Amino acid sequence: MPSPANKKHPAEPDPGCNQCPRLVAFRQANIKRHPDYYNGAVTSFGDDGAGILILGLAPGLQGANKTGRPFTGDLSGELLFKCLETMGWTGGTNENRPDDSFVLRNVMLTNAVRCVPPENKPTTEEVLKCRPYLMARIDALPRLRVIFALGKVAHDATIRAFFLKLAEYKFAHNARHSLPNGLTLVDSYHCSRYNVNTGRLTENMLLDAMRGAQQANIEDR
Ligand code: SF4
Asked: What is the CATH number of the domain that holds 136?
């Protein structure tokens, strides 16, 4: 029998994970405010044979925290799913419910922090606390070649997860970084409502970065 120290870390947290006190307090408040919401640590969504892992920041209060599926139900997800569809990485129909027919192909979708943070801003400590789930998620994808980071927090979480130096891997939209472990990190601005409304990220820009990820996935095989 393996010792607890050798036990494999699960890729998905229990919905009631209580390792981050600030996030648990926010969850409790949301359960009172929105008892009909999912209000828990959000499980990854996608294809177990994925070559590309799309990494977001954290669940949105009115998106994944409400529906229980990453990027489902808010404006960030609207643009993301539209672009995933254009790339041919989806199937079925998204009805913003985890039990709809929507599926992802060759792509897995997750967040650096699995619980909704106040004002959409997780702390560095919370990113570190959730790191074992990210690492286990990565380890559980045998065909993974590319991590597609949505925003600088996701970029930094990836670099830190592999114990690399942030100074050597600068975040920039559509930047492509070869990591020592053989994976490629592709960056994009986050598809947040703010970035979309201010024009910092357009649909074409997100598609360009996705094409970069697709290219890296093909080249690295
Ligand atoms: S953010 Fe991650 S580590 Fe923290 S409580 Fe949620 S699932 Fe647990």
From this structure: 3.40.470.10
